[in-house]
Amino acid sequence: MRFFLVLLLVFFGYQTFNAQEFSVITGNVFDGRSKEPISHCTISIEDTRVSINSSADFELSAPISLIGAYILNVSSPDFITKRIPIILENQLLDLGIIYLENDIVIEKADNLIALTDADITEEENTALGLGLLQGTRDIFLSKAAFDFGQAFFRVRGYDSQNGKVLINGMPMNKF
Staple 60 to which of 4, 25, 53, 145, CB 3.0 to 4.6 Å? Predict the structure, then answer.
């Protein structure tokens, strides 16, 4: 009788373990501008604990309990997080190539000076000083280029009579 119970438990245990299939998500992550592969990506499924840190080629295995519609987050430092809606159905889901765009806020915060080796090794010191002075944008150039928005900069010769403020297509100047 004990042998029969052990055999029965092993048989049903095998069925339970065999039923735990996996959904597999694969894809490649590339830079949208340079088309180069991105390393150190974080791929996760929203509202779950399923997450991996991977290189440009990733493979994410999710347990069977994650059948249904989810949102896949693909993120990397200095890039905008991409959210991709997916449907998991216990089969291979190949996302192909995923392009991440550079984060513009981080790009604007960088005040990098583009100097070549020829600029540094030149005998003329005036050209090096000029390159350093033009390397960063001052507040006047930012204001003149409307970087703060048009509300902070009023064009000479135009007053409020020549402009309309519209909210949902309704003029708001007369209120």
Answer: 25
pTM of the model: 0.51
Number of neighbouring beta carbons within 10 Å of residue 70: 20
pLDDT digits (tens), the chain, 175 positions: 777 666 656 666 655 555 556 778 888 888 888 888 888 888 888 888 888 887 766 665 555 567 888 999 998 888 899 999 998 887 888 888 889 988 877 656 555 566 666 666 666 555 445 555 555 555 555 555 555 555 555 556 666 566 676 777 777 766 4
The pairing of strands 22-31 and 92-100 is parallel
DSSP assigned state of 123? S
Domain range annotation of the chain: 10-102, 111-158
**DSSP letter at 173?**
T
AA letter at 166: L
Q: Of 22, 34, 84, 30, give the one whose Cα is nearest residue 59.
A: 22
Cβ neighbours for 96, distance < 8 A, ≥ 6 positions apart: 27, 28
User: What is the CATH code of the structural domain delimited by 10-102?
Assistant: 2.60.40.1120
CB atoms within 10 A of CB 9: 10
150 vs 144: CA distance, rounded Å: 10
